[in-house]
Amino acid sequence: MDYKLNLHFHIVAGQQEFQDLLNSTDVKAMYQKCVELSESTPLDTEGKLRGYCVVCEKVVEFSYGWLYSHMEKINFREHLLCPGCNLNNRQRGIANVVFKLLV
Known about the structure:
Layout: H1 15-22, H2 25-40, E1 46-53, E2 58-65, E3 80-81, H3 89-102
């Protein structure tokens, strides 16, 4: 499986464009995956999710859990940690943008 993906960035110019993005098939599928992982991960435990780290430039087993979650669903933006660089999803996303701007 190819884990190295191109991130897609959207410039949203208004409320309707934002609603359209939220209702897109891709965003709904990502949200559903987050819900499924949250429902299958017991409180006070961590799960693992295989993926590609743009900072480490390799496939890793990201860890995720209930930290920063408000106990409703796992907050993958803040707690999907790479074991190599120890950056979360949001931080790796910023690094990816910087890397693309420098190339």
